[in-house]
Amino acid sequence: MKISKPKYSSNNFEVRLISLFVLFNGIYLVGSTLIRQLIANHRFADITYFSNDLNLIVALSLIYLASLLARRKKSAFYFSIVAYTIYFLSNIENYLNLSSLKHIGIGLFLRELLIPVIILLLLLLNRPKFVVKSDIQSFKTAVQLSLLLIVIVGIFGTAGFIVLGKSGFHRNLSILTAVHYTFDQVNLTTNKPLHVYSPKAQLFTESLRIISVFSLIYVFLLFFKPIKDKYSSRTNLERFRNLLYSQEDSRSEDFFKIWPEDKNYFFDQTRTSGLGYRVNHRNALVLGGPTGKRAKFRQLLVEFNDFCKSNDWTWAVIHTEHKYFDIYESLGFKKQLIGKEAIVDLDNFIKNQKEDKYFRNILNRFNSRGYSYSLIKPPHETTVLLRLKQISDQWLRTKGHVERGFAMGWFNFKYINLCDLIVAKDNQGIIQGFVNIIPAPYDKTEATYDLMRSTKEAAGNVNDFLVLSLINELKHQGYKRLNMGLCPLVGVNDEKTSDSQLINGLLKLAYANGNHFYSFNGLYRFKNKYYPKWRSRYILYRGGITQFSKINRSLMLIMRKSASSKRF
Q1: Residues 6+ apart with CB under 8 A from 72
Q2: In sequence order, which residues have a C-beta less than 8 Å from that of residue 273 and are 6 or more positions away?
Q3: CB 59 within 8 A of CB 26
Q4: H-helix or E-strand containing 304?
Q5: Closest residue by Cα to residue 160 from 178, 174, 176
C-alpha cells in the first residue's frame, strides 16, 4: 500500500473572508433590526412579528458561527447554509412583486437579499474547505461557557431593566430587582409581574427573551455532548483493553495506554487495532503507538492521520520505540530521541551482584538494622493504604517532587489497589518505603515499576533496598527483565538529526528546568548501577522546531492536568 505524504496548505484566505462576512453580517443584522424597531415606533403588537424574532435568532447564531467557520467546521458550514436559506426565504416575498420592489430601500435590499445570496454562494463554492469535525467538549469547558453566557445575559438584562425602568415599566428598579426579572422572565417567583409601557421596553423584553432561549439551547447542547462522549469513552476503553491484553508482544509499560483513564481511543475500520491519545491546543498526542492486530497498524495510522486532518489537529507519537517508523516516515514524520529506558536482565544482574561490593554492603546494612521487605497483593487493607498515602504526601512535599499523568501514574487508592507492592519495613514493622509493580498480566517476561517513595525517617539508600527486593521477588516469580523506566535526555547528544541541537536544548529546558530541582544525571547513575541495557524512546512529529516546541508544551500541560484531577 503506497502512501503519499500529506500536503498541507496555509492559504485559508477564502475561509477567513467568509467568516468575516458572516461575523459582520451578524453584527449588522442585530444592530439594524433593533434600530429599525426603535425608529419605526410600531405598536406593541407589531414588535413581536415572527420575522423580527427570526432576524435576531439568525443574527446571534451567525456571530457564534463565524468563529467556527474560521476553523473550517463542517457542522458550522451546514448550519450557516440552513440559517441563510431560512432567512432569505422568509424575506423573499418582498421581492416577488415588481411594483413594490421600487419602494424598498438599498439598505434593506442589501441586508435581506444581496448579502445572504453572496454568502451562500461563497459557502457553496468553498464547500471542500469545511471538513473539520466538532471538538469533544469536556464538562469543564461546558461549565465555563455556560457561566459566561449567564454573565452576558445577566448584564444585558439587568442594565436594560435599570435604564428603561421609569419610562418603560413605570417603576424604578433596583439592581437586585433587575437581576430577579432578568432570570425570571415568566414570573415563576414573583407576584408583581412587570408591564410594558413603551416600544423600547417591549423591544428590550423581546430581545432578552430571544437571547435567553438561544443561550438555554446552546447550554443544553454543551452538556449533552460530554454525557454522550462519556459513555462511548467507557465502551472504547474496554475495547482497547481487550486489544492490549490479546496482543502477543504487548509490554508491561503499555498499561499506561489504559491508565490513567484520561485518554480517548481511535480504532481502524475493522476495530482490530487502536491507539490512545489526548488533545491539547489542537495537538493530538498518541501514547506509545498502535495496539492490537499488527497487520492493521498501517491502515490504523493512515485512518488516524485522516481523522486528525478532519479535526484540524496536528498529531505526534509520544514515548515510542523505533518500531513501525517506516509507516510514520511515509506520513511525513521524523523522530527525536528523548531518552532511554534502563532494562535490567535479571539473570545477568544476579550473576554480577555476587561480585558487587556496593550491593552486598546495602543488603548487609539493612539486614543489620532489622529491615525486611514484603510483597503485598491487592486488595490492600485500609491501614496499609493510609500509611502509603502518608509516605506519598511526605515525598511530594520534598522540593522538586511532582506528579504527572498520561504516560505514568500518580498516587491514588484506586491505582494502588490494582498493583502488587514491595514495601520496606523497619525493625518495628513500620512501612518506610514502597514501590508498585505495574499490573500487566499479559506480559510475564518484563515487569515495570512506577511509584517509588519513602519517608525521611527511612535508612539511607532505601531505594536501592527496594529495587534489590523487587528484583529478588521478580526472579522468584519467573520474570526475565525489569524495566526501570525512562532516563530523560540520555543519549540525546549522540544522535544527529536536523535541528537536533536546538531541539535537545528545548528538551533539557522542558524536562528539567535546568536541573535545579532534579538531577537527571543522578537518575542515570542510580539506574546504571544495575547493569542495564538501554532502550531508546522517541517523540515522532511533523514540522520544524516551532511545531516540536508546541508538541512538547502540550505534552507537559496534558501530564500536569491529568495528575491535577486525581481522586482518592
Answers
A1: 12, 15, 129, 130, 131, 132, 312
A2: 243, 267, 290, 291, 292, 293, 294, 296, 297, 299, 300
A3: yes
A4: helix 297-310
A5: 178
Q: What angle do CA 124, 125, 130 make, to 5 degrees?
A: 70
The amino acid at residue 564 is S
Q: Does residue 298 contact residue 327 with C-beta atoms inside 8 Å? A: yes
Q: Give the domain extent around 126.
A: 7-134
Whether residue 290 is contained in a domain is answered as: no
Same domain? 128 vs 142: no
Question: Can you give the CATH number for the domain in which 404 is found?
Answer: 3.40.630.30
Alpha helices in 369-423 (DSSP H): 382-397, 413-416
Sign of CA dihedral 500, 501, 502, 504: positive
Q: Peptide bond before 260: cis, by omega within 30 degrees of 0?
A: yes
Predicted confidence (pLDDT) per residue in 360-414, tens digit:
999 999 999 999 999 999 999 999 999 999 999 999 998 778 888 899 999 999 9
What's the sign of the alpha-carbon dihedral 493, 499, 505, 510?
negative
Cα–Cα distance measured from residue 522 to residue 487, given in angstroms and rounded to the nearest whole number: 10
Cis bond leading into 290, ω under 30°?
Answer: no
Same structural domain for residues 97 and 158? no
**Tens digits of residue pLDDT in 107-149:** 667 767 788 888 889 888 888 888 766 554 444 565 666 678 7
What's the predicted TM-score (pTM) here? 0.67
- Confirm whether 556 is domain-assigned: no
